[in-house]
Write a structure and sequence with these properties.
single chain; about 160 residues; alpha+beta; Rieske Iron-sulfur Protein; 6-stranded antiparallel sheet; 4-stranded antiparallel sheet; 2 helices; about 35% strand; elongated; binds FE2/S2 (inorganic) cluster
Length: about 160
């Protein structure tokens, strides 16, 4: 009878529990590793110089490309550094890194709320200074310094703000 049961259900319960414990410890090891990596990343962030970092100035748009309440994507200072230039309803230009400080999803400008919004986990940032308004992002968005030169808008540097939380 036992032989028949083992053939129908070829699971060794002792070993099955052992595998479950092994999977649990594997999970705990991975989770601990993830926490350690997260701690190192947080420490690295805190060591980043605060304030403006100057890069070579570059044209990012023409004035004619935008209008109040609209946004334009660009890259600065490297091609892989995605940013968003916004002309606020009052006409002022502001620009931010487009990379959410939570898990790097791209943020978009929401004219109706006058904020930058990350759809991945409902994070939101102020259009005024990039500070976190809601959601899990731990830091403000780096602000790209822009200025109008004639008919063009130039980026001149990037400012990393203080921590939001
Ligand atoms: S990646 Fe932006 S809120 Fe999570």
């Amino acid at each position: 009878m036992d032989t028949q049961v083992q053939r129908d259900f070829p699971i060794d319960w002792e070993e099955d529990h052992y595998v479950s414990r092994r999977e649990f410890f594997k999970f705990m090891t991975l989770a601990s590793g993830g926490l350690a990596v997260g701690s190192v990343a947080m420490a690295a962030w805190s060591k980043l110089p605060k304030g403006e970092i100057h890069f070579e100035a570059a044209v990012v748009a023409k004035i004619a490309d935008l209008q109040p309440g609209k946004a334009l994507a660009f890259s600065y200072p490297r091609p892989s550094d995605l940013c968003l230039l916004v002309q606020k309803p009052d006409g002022e230009y502001v620009a931010y890194s487009r990379r959410c400080t939570h898990l790097s999803c791209p943020v978009d400008y929401q004219a109706e709320h006058n904020r930058l919004f990350c759809p991945c986990h409902n994070g939101a940032f102020s259009i005024e200074d990039g500070r976190v308004l809601q959601g899990p992002p731990p830091h403000p968005l780096p602000q790209v310094k822009v200025e109008v030169r004639g008919e063009e808008i130039w980026a001149t540097g990037v400012e990393h703000g203080e921590e939001s939380v």
